[in-house]
Amino acid sequence: MKVAQRFIAIVLIFMIWILAFSYVHSIHRQSTVSAIPCPEKTIGIVKINSRDIFSKILFDYSFRNKDAKMIKTVSEYYQNWAQDTSAARYPIDFSENFCFIKLKLNQEIIWVLAGKSISNNASFNGFIRKGFYYEIVSKDKEKAAILQQQLMNGSWFLSEFNPNKALTYELINNKQLKNEYVFSLRTQELAFSFKARRTTTMIVPDSTRSFFHISTRLNRGSFLPEKYADLDVLTDKLAGFSFNYYGARYINDAERGTYIDTEFDLLFNFSKKTKPTELTKILRKVAKEDVRVESDWIYLNRARYRLKAINDSTIFIGKNNPKLSQTKAAYSMRGKPQVLTEIKDLGWTGGLLELIPEYRALKDFSQSVESIQMHMACDKNTCTHQVSKQNTCQKNMQHIRIKFKPGSNARLETFRVLLTMANAYQFQPD
């Protein structure tokens, strides 16, 4: 009897692995959606090749993963997703290529979720056109219905998916591709590349210390779920920012109490003239904490930072005197992400932080990164050979590669931290 039971168990395990492998193999095939119609007012498209992304992640998850934390995170996400009655359900086949379309309509930026339709049910909030379902997100139903009617009556054009690119963000101008941000996810590396355009101001980090630096230009109309709509007071005016982070310290003061004193330098680049007094109003609304100004200093809770207007649209907040530089990079990243989760002098309270899933996931992710490499390369379309002895090459292609330590899997580490953040913020009450 025991021999028979063991044989049956072995057969069942074998069948489970065969089914898992078959599923991974099935989604590894190319999507049947090779192109999608887009409204003529489109100014950007986030294209997602879910088969390419999840076939690689599921292969690692099914055959290479030995981490129990991954199983726990996936289980928690699925339970939250199944119980989330507030989240909208979309009649879209997410196993095929789908996208988020960014439009400028009536001088307003809106986002539309679009993908292959799996239902003809008219009870949904969006509309179906030529086999694809479209729905405006982050707008109230009444306003969305009016805007969707305008889209349906307007002109459309066809935008193609590239089967070799898992995730891309295309900037569109008059139905033509203006720039393309390409993201790739390999076993030991995360990478993305794009064309560098205009120059922008950034803060130069202090390379003699451990730091993490990020600078970016922003396009107006960043997508925000409705529950975070109050953040638009910042994103609608913000043209870009530059951020240096050097860690944090736990302060236990007899007079002022306990608080976290983070050391950072932050440069805000606004698209319109903005005074420091306006910024403090924005911070009060966004941060929802004590924000006060005394002369050239700003207090965020009990931590003190310098406050300085660089010009009429650039404002600095930080611990150090700002050292500025100009860069053509639309996005830059340098340093050691480990400092993002380092807090000195925590003592026994540090153990409490380890119990917070978001902190633990960010710490594991940052500590699994070995290096961040950034370089500019020549775009073959801008290289010319007019004279045999002269080679003119405009280095306008920017590449950023995040390399992970041996034994760490970039796909799984990224997937785990994203699911953990979704568990924490996507399913929280409005």
What is the percent of helical residues?
25-40%
Q: Output the number of helix runs.
A: 9
Distance between the termini: 56 Å
Q: What radius of gyration results from the CA coordinates?
A: 24 Å
Sequence of strands across the biggest β-sheet = 5-6-4-3-2-8-9-10-25-22
Q: Quaternary arrangement of the chains shown?
A: single chain
Q: Please state the average pLDDT score.
A: 77
Unreliable residue stretches:
2-24, 383-391
User: What shape does the CA trace take?
Assistant: globular
- Strands, count: 25
* Total individual domains: 2
Strand content: 35-45%
Structural class determined from secondary elements: alpha+beta
Main beta-sheet annotation:
10 strands, antiparallel
Salient structural properties:
disordered N terminus, 9-stranded mixed sheet, alpha+beta, 25 strands, 10-stranded antiparallel sheet, 430 residues, 28% helix, 9 helices, globular, single chain
What does this protein structure show overall?
The protein is of the alpha+beta class and 430 residues long. It folds into two domains: 32-178, no CATH class; 188-408, no CATH class. 28% of the residues lie in helices and 38% in strands. α1 (2-28) runs antiparallel to α2 and α3 (68-83) packs parallel to α9 (410-426). The chain is globular and about 65 Å long.
SSE map:
Blueprint: H1 2-28, E1 35-39, E2 42-48, H2 50-64, H3 68-83, E3 98-105, E4 108-116, E5 127-129, E6 132-137, H4 141-153, E7 156-160, E8 167-173, E9 176-185, E10 189-195, E11 200-203, E12 212-217, H5 232-235, E13 238-253, E14 257-270, H6 276-287, E15 291-294, E16 297-300, E17 303-311, E18 314-318, E19 324-327, E20 331-335, E21 343-344, H7 350-353, H8 357-367, E22 369-377, E23 384-387, E24 390-392, E25 397-404, H9 410-426
Parallel strand pairs: 13-21
Antiparallel strand pairs: 1-7, 2-3, 2-8, 3-4, 4-6, 5-6, 8-9, 9-10, 10-25, 11-19, 12-13, 12-20, 13-14, 14-18, 15-16, 16-17, 17-18, 22-25, 23-24
